[in-house]
């Protein structure tokens, strides 16, 4: 007779639950993080640069934004089919809930910010006559129904300015959420001694 107890369902689930994100998830996370930080620097510095630098910097900012949008959508698809590691069991329920809400809002802003920038660029009065190229190489379309609105209507509705304002405020919201995200990870690492950062490190 086998006296060893069979593992419970909870024990079997714990044994198959990953303790880290997959390598693909890690790669996407850190590439997106670096691109966002670069784009923040480009966006905030554009107005203080010499005139002949402004257009290349803005074009690079646009290209990185579109790249981030594509990578974030890819990350969402990957996460939908790959179970992420759970937060430590010692975390209280409210903290787990807050972390899930923060991640949802991060994804929402990482999609909304480049989309609003794309809308802002598509509403530009020169969009139809100045084709966009990602990193100066790959042709990229504007949002057709916005670009093709009658110029007088665009001017009357101040679409370019309105989308620009939306893009700016979404940017501020993303900066604030990123600061909380990074601050929370460092707090768990250095103060609580309950590392969540190692889940995203190889």
From TrEMBL:
It is a multi-pass membrane protein. Residues 21-202 form the Cytochrome b561 bacterial/Ni-hydrogenase domain. The chain crosses the membrane at residues 27-44, 64-81, 101-119, 169-186. Keywords: Cell membrane, Electron transport, Heme, Iron, Membrane, Metal-binding, Transmembrane, Transmembrane helix, Transport. InterPro entries: Cyt_b561_bac/Ni-Hgenase, Cytochrome_b561_oxidase, Di-haem_cyt_TM. Its cofactor is heme b. It is found in: Cell membrane. Belongs to the cytochrome b561 family. This is Cytochrome b561. It comes from Paraburkholderia gardini.
